[in-house]
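User: I've been going back and forth on whether these two constructs are worth ordering. Before I decide, could you fold them both?

Assistant: Sure. I'll take them in the order you sent them. The first construct and its structure tokens:
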Amino acid sequence: MFDYTSRYANQKKLQYERRDGRIVSYAARRILPARESFDTLVDVYLGEGQRLDNIAALTLGDPQLFWQICDANGVLNPFDLMSGVGKMIKVPMPGRQMP
């Protein structure tokens, strides 16, 4: 259902049967991990025009791991994290995060 790099890759897969008999598959709700559970690899100062996928590619080696940076900073929406030009964000240690 999800690529192995997805934040939902290890979530339990559930199904719901509709009244018309169709089966709807979905992932169980994912709870955001506590910010303090992450060790920091590096702090990144957000400059004008930076993108989270580029930061993830440079620091974690894969642009699709942007969600790990979101988790380490306690946000669900990547746009919320990137809205603060001039602030520091935490990039977590690679291999520590579990989706």
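The second construct, handled the same way:
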Amino acid sequence: MTPLSPYLNHRFTLKTSFIAAVVLCIAGLLLAALAVNFPMLMIARILQGAGTGVALPRMFNIILEQSPRSRLGLLMGVGNMVCAIAPALGPTVGGVGEAAIGWR
């Protein structure tokens, strides 16, 4: 999804494409929560991945285009921290949730 970022820059506004990516990710989340079999869960995860794949480069575009130059390093660091912490905490939180209530 990341190579689509330049196309999305020219075709849509930052706000529109970022909101669409977040909605796509949330739709995947809801579908995954309601999944009754593995194919449905896999489709939900693909939707989440597509939304995240669009949202992350857009997030950095927003930071680079909208933030003041004096705060650019701090905001890029926060953006990178979001990208680094999510894969580290996601499996742990998901495992705890699955152990507590099951995936169905």
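Notes on the second construct follow. The two ends are 29 Å apart (CA to CA). Helices lie at 5-11, 14-33, 38-66, 72-101.
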